[in-house]
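Example 3.2
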Amino acid sequence: MKMVFAIISKSDEDITVSALNEAGFFATKLSTTGGFLKKTNTSIIIGVEDDKVDAVLDILKKYAGKRIDEMPYVAPSMARSHNGVGAPYVTVPTSAGGATVFVLDVTSFEKF
């Protein structure tokens, strides 16, 4: 048996846990805060049989992995000239998501 411990972005929490549950995996969520920039994260703990680890990792990669999102950006000069209302914007690619995952051996598992 293995324990998968994944630290993911808070914004990816709902869709990731839903996907894990739909695939038959039970997950325990913990709210956590990262040391760098004090970003809010979610840590997920999943107990899984050895032969199911790859399935869990595939779900984590799909729903919580690094990706490029398009974010709206308004140039400061345009925001000032429009008082922030109706200012034209462009979208810029920005990095989003990402997970840190640990897969640990479990020597004993009990459920009471």
